Amino acid sequence: MKYAAFILGIVVIISIGTFITYRMLRPRHGENGGFSDWLKNPDYKQAAADYFAARKALTIPDDISDEEIQKMVDQLFDEKDKHFNFDRLQLVGMKAVPMLINALNNPKTASMKFGDGGYVPGPASPFERIADLLESSGSPQAAQPLAKYMQHNDSYFRKYAAHALGNIGTSECIEPMLIALGDDDDYVRSFAMMGVEGGIRAKRCTPEFLDAMVPALTKLLDRPDNSVSGRAPGLLLAIDTNRAMSILLSSDYFSIENKQLQYIIRALNTAGHKIPHDTLLPLLKTLKPLVADYPHDYNYSEALIAYANHPDASAEELFRLELTSGNEKIQRAAAEALAILSGVTNAREVIFDALDKQGFDQLSSPQKHYYAVFMYDSEVCNGGHSQYFVNSSGDHWKSALAGLKAIGAEKRALILQEATKLFGTAGPAVDNDTRHRQLAAFTSKKDQVVDGLDTRYYECSENVEALLALYAIKHKEHFVVPD
Known about the structure:
CATH architecture of the largest domain: Up-down Bundle
InterPro entries: ARM-like, ARM-type_fold, DMP19_C, PBS_lyase_HEAT
GO molecular function: lyase activity
CATH class of the largest domain: Mainly Alpha
Pfam families: DMP19, HEAT_2
Number of domains: 4
Shape: globular
Largest sheet: none
Oligomer: single chain
Keywords: Lyase, Membrane, Transmembrane, Transmembrane helix
Organism: Planctopirus limnophila (strain ATCC 43296 / DSM 3776 / IFAM 1008 / Mu 290) (Planctomyces limnophilus)
Number of helices: 26
Strand content: under 5%
Number of strands: 0
Low-confidence stretches: 10-32
Distance between the termini: 20 Å
């Protein structure tokens, strides 16, 4: 979905730009780079823009020699990615595969890490780079050499091998992927599933491979996990819907005893599958008195959405009752459920489609309010007011302020209003670069005020997502696709 790409941008634009420019400028600015360096040095943004422009302009000659390719593969063992070596190898494509496979057999590949094993922005080893390149190729010939890494003592190597093997998704990958999905390490299993998701998107996974994954994925449906976050149900549905439905709705897994139940319901909701009333309604009744305890509040919230997707005459009354719940997640689910009942099934997607086609200025007033508030809340919750104002989302702070008032979030509107006053009587500049320079000039005292506003925002009880859903219902004509 388009709005998901926008939100992903919130998370990664700052972090990518920061680490790239930090790596480029680190010798001149010490070893303590990070968001504060990006914030206080607006010129970093131009450095990042130049970097991405240069990378986008890369080309590789069609007649590139094997000798040149081998030199590029050898350079994968250098920590600094000079001259966009990794990106150039991506452009080389299949011609590089034999040399990349040979590199997997290099003893250094199985042991070498960059940065003395500590945090490294970007790929942390030659193996990670090689695995990334091989998974992009989808070459079955890479399966056997990658499979050896599933026996590695270090879970770091196992997780990237699993990710690459899942992306390739051929019969040669079955045995090592079954090992990966049964690994004791949470992240190895998670990376394995992300790999299969990538292979499905790329239409590389063979029917034989996918069929073999089903039993291993089924075992994860009720396995406590700190990293998987419910990928198994969605993958099962993507592999074989009918088979998955019978598994997911069975009493073995569709039970409050299963601490992973929320992910099963969410996967069914996301895929648009209706849960039968004889299964769903007893579940809602059972969960209702348990919502004070995790994960039952999450289970109940997902079940409310499922009820909205398959309602009966009593559904609306329940949703309106839960708008007054003391649980923020349940409030949000109740508002979203009411929106679904009213026909507003995906307000965000409607907004982002309109934004993509028309631009912000052509949005209706309710659409501007919704978009600006949604982005403001997402940015601040992700990285505070400094992140909001340093990003392009801050261009629309006036609409965000008006939108917060329009949806009834008066306390949050006051917080934003106080933040804008730090920029002077005219408020933050609408131009992103100018506003960035304003932020960079903030004194330490102003920075502390911003931190305090962040804290107040996080402690505020106004439920933005619920209020946005109710606002979309009130202005329904602006949030549905015309027939």
